[in-house]
Design brief:
The complex is a heterodimer. Chain A is α+β, with helices and mostly antiparallel strands. Chain A is built from 7 helices and 10 strands. The longest helix of chain A is centred in the middle third of the chain and has 17 residues. Chain A is elongated and about 85 Å long. The chains are: A alpha+beta, B alpha/beta.
């Protein structure tokens, strides 16, 4: 005999941006919004990894709650009324992205990720044409010690996607964070050069998941784009040698 | 330990004490030890020995007596002495049988002592924190005995709820409600954590409680564990409090040896153990989820709530986290009842609160006062007012998460609600008093620098926002700012407050917002006197000079 499914406890209905939507129990606001084609900006969120809640771009307003909530970390409840867009939220989001640009040296024109960078795209989407905050211009290193990959701390936004994918998916936990505040930085093993890491499996997941030009494959930098013209004399010589 | 053994232990010490005709108590907490009270204690013990008075004079090291600025403090029978140097030991011992040493006498009738109401600190100054027998003789573990032999966990929670006790760590969440949430949470394993990660600049209440009466904290935790159904307790103390760590470790070992921690306490089937975890001194580890991460051996960073620790805390188990002072209130509530506790304080803020008085006041030190006491009474009567004939300007409460209260609001009562209304918070109990010479923008910059360096770096608004706010405040202080900078600062304050992940970031703008609220003219004065704010004129002049 079929047992009737208790729809009331298994599914939840809520309203996001004046659109009535439904979801399964346990889903987050961000998941449900994206399923329904409602775009909430994020930088640290990555489907398949644990929720971090650090970029704060997905903050949404929930009716009846005095505080803004991060959509990625908020589980839907019955009857929630959520707005993902408002002049206030947009202003906050713009400021957060401006802060990220001011924090480190994000120079798009000379970046390997120019044109396919999530931070750059986000800035364009939010209409950021200038940064009001004082740039920090920190002196940061480029870790060039790994034979296949490269870490440029100048472009890192500390979203920790690389840390999470390395620990949760690859299971290596080569990467972690050191330091506090603006001095926090991604490290390898016990803060040693990436190339000297004994735990890194060189799987490259971190490179593929990095939203900016902080993690890249070697050979993709502008300076590495060298042309090999030496073939020409040989070919000419060979042609001349032919009868 | 069996119930009758506790009474026997107390009786034994009381009988020993009856043989003494004189008592000398020397403060042995960090403040007084830093001015050689440890040497003083040794000298007095030697002097007593030399005079052959060992069986007649009881000499012991005790907890804080409050008036830290006049330390080392010492109590010989009923006379309190201040500024006692190690070489005064002989004179003090002699005074027991003759007249007091007049030049060192500290008046215990002054308002500093007379206006206080001691609950948490009732035994500080009387007991030797390093001797469990002495603590038991003064009533330690009596409340635990009562709870375990005559109350159900539900009754304990009901009693705490009735008392109206609210968390002393800062936010003031009702303790009874928290306990009942943890007790209702499912799961076999539960934990009790005592948050001793006191990190506000100018606050040392929790340190004093842990150093002066460690058994009271353990007893409060044990009662909490019984109420919520936990078997393991953890005290998280910062490593910067070595004396507190030493005393707590000693207290735990003694309690374990006497059977006051461990299996089947007082013949019941309740087991409870406590261990200490040392914090490496990160301010953010006072935030409960960051503290739990730190205890788990991870990097001390907060995570989004919910789930709250009451449902999913340490190792994913329901966890009760309370502040040191909150736990230290529990034995008194259990012994004298929630009703009695609720008679002290205001309608919504019950009981007493310990404050650490620092800054431009005559009497700096620790006080315990009933909630609802007028702020003026604390500043002018208890603290003795502002020295050198200067005028009072503001008092900063709640540390880097709090705000400043100016002179026009001196008549407010000190409780959770009225402090919040003024844009400050109760916080853990630090009070920093400032006089007319203090620059309020500089005060805001100081606290912002603290938040900037203590931000864990997880969320962008706090990590970069505090840096940029500090940068703007620094520019204002250095007279390099314009009105546009001030407006940007205000906008940034709002954003950081609204979007940060944890309490550190959400409250980091408070010192700026509250100084802006009451002392905006100081900001404006600095900006108006800055050459940058007349930059338009300046550029013009340069251009003209170049032309000529």
């Amino acid at each position: 005999m079929n047992t009737p499914v208790d729809i009331a406890t298994e599914s939840i209905t809520l309203r996001i941006d004046d659109k009535d939507v439904s979801c399964r129990k346990g889903e987050t606001v961000l998941q449900v919004a994206r399923e329904n084609g409602i775009d909430i900006p994020t930088l640290c969120y990555m489907e398949g990894l644990t929720v971090w809640g650090g970029c704060r771009l997905c903050m949404v307003e929930i009716a009846g709650s005095p505080k803004l909530q991060a959509a990625c970390a908020t589980v839907c409840t019955e009857g929630m009324i959520i707005s993902t867009q408002s002049p206030r939220l947009e202003n906050y989001r713009r400021m957060i992205v401006e802060l990220l640009f001011a924090e480190r040296n994000h120079v798009c024109s000379v970046c390997v990720s120019n044109g396919h960078c999530e931070l750059q795209t986000m800035a364009v989407k939010l209409g950021i044409d200038h940064v009001r905050f004082a740039y920090r211009f920190p002196h940061l290193e480029v870790d060039n010690s790994h034979d296949r990959m490269r870490m440029d701390h100048n472009r890192c936004i500390l979203c920790t996607r690389c840390v999470r994918v390395c620990a949760e998916i690859e299971g290596a936990h080569t990467k972690d964070i050191k330091g506090r505040g603006v001095l926090a930085a991604i490290i390898h093993d016990l803060d040693q050069n990436w190339g000297e890491s004994s735990t890194c499996t060189s799987c490259g997941k971190c490179v593929n998941i990095c939203p900016t030009g902080a993690l890249t494959h070697r050979g993709t930098a502008v300076g590495e784009m060298t042309k090999k013209t030496t073939f020409l004399p040989y070919l000419t010589l060979m042609r001349e040698a032919q009868p | 330990m069996k119930p009758e053994e506790l009474t026997a232990m107390a009786e034994k010490v009381r009988k020993q004490d009856a043989h003494f005709s004189h008592h000398i108590h020397v403060c042995t907490e960090s403040g007084c030890v830093s001015s050689q009270s440890d040497v003083l204690l040794k000298n007095i013990t030697d002097e007593v020995q030399q005079r052959g008075l060992k069986g007649k004079v009881c000499v012991k090291g005790v907890g804080c007596m409050g008036l830290c600025c006049n330390g080392p403090l010492l109590k010989a029978d009923d006379t309190m002495y201040q500024f006692v140097k190690p070489e005064d030991a002989g004179a003090i011992v002699d005074s027991l049988t003759s007249t007091p040493v007049v030049e060192l006498v500290c008046d215990t009738k002054q308002p500093f002592f007379a206006r206080q109401k001691l609950i948490v600190r009732e035994n500080a100054g009387h007991i030797d924190p390093e001797s469990i027998a002495d603590c038991v003789a003064h009533g330690a573990y009596r409340a635990l005995l009562k709870v375990l032999t005559s109350m159900t966990p539900q009754q304990v929670i009901a009693e705490v709820s009735e008392s109206g006790l609210r968390g002393r760590g800062g936010a003031g969440f009702p303790t009874g409600l928290k306990w009942s949430t943890v007790s209702k949470a499912g799961g076999k394993t539960k934990y009790v954590i005592c948050n001793g990660d006191e990190g506000d600049p100018g606050a040392f209440m929790d340190r004093s409680v842990m150093e002066g009466d460690p058994h009271r904290v353990l007893e409060g935790m044990a009662i909490g564990a019984y109420a919520v159904g936990a078997g393991q307790g953890i005290i998280y103390v910062r490593a910067e409090y070595p004396l507190a760590v030493k005393r707590l470790t000693r207290a735990i070992n003694q309690a374990r040896r006497e059977g006051l921690l461990g299996h089947g306490l007082f013949g019941s089937n309740f087991d409870f153990n406590v261990e200490i975890r040392l914090g490496a001194g990160a301010f953010v580890c006072g935030e409960e989820t960051a503290l739990i991460a730190s205890v788990e051996g991870k990097r001390g960073m907060p995570r989004p709530r919910p789930p709250y620790p009451a449902n999913s805390g340490l190792h994913g188990c329901p966890t009760l986290i309370n502040n040191v002072e909150t736990f230290a209130n529990i034995p008194a509530i259990m012994e004298r009842g929630g009703k009695w506790f609720a008679t002290i304080g205001t309608e919504k803020s019950k009981g007493t609160k310990i404050f650490a008085l620092t800054g431009k006041i005559k009497n700096t030190g620790l006080i315990e006062v009933p909630m609802g006491i007028p702020l003026r009474e604390i500043i002018y009567d208890i603290a003795g007012g502002i020295p050198d004939g200067k005028a009072f300007k503001a008092v900063q409460t709640g540390g880097p998460s709090g705000g400043c209260i100016p002179a026009e609001h001196l008549d407010i009562t000190v409780d959770y609600e009225s402090l919040t209304k003024l844009g400050s918070i109760m916080g853990s109990g630090g009070m920093i008093v400032m006089d007319e010479t203090s620059n309020m923008v500089d005060v805001a910059r100081f606290f912002m620098e603290f938040c900037m360096t203590e931000s864990c770096g997880k969320c962008v608004p706090c990590r970069v926002g505090t840096y940029e706010m500090h940068e703007l405040l620094d520019r204002i202080c250095k007279r390099q700012a314009t009105m546009a900078d001030l407006n940007l600062l205000k906008e940034l304050c709002d954003m950081v407050k609204q979007t940060s992940l944890c309490g550190l970031g959400q409250s980091a703008p408070n010192p700026v917002l509250s100084t802006l609220r009451y002392f905006e003219n100081e900001y404006l004065k600095l900006i108006q006197s800055s050459p940058a704010s007349h930059a338009g004129d300046g550029d013009h002049h340069v251009a003209l000079e170049v032309l000529s």
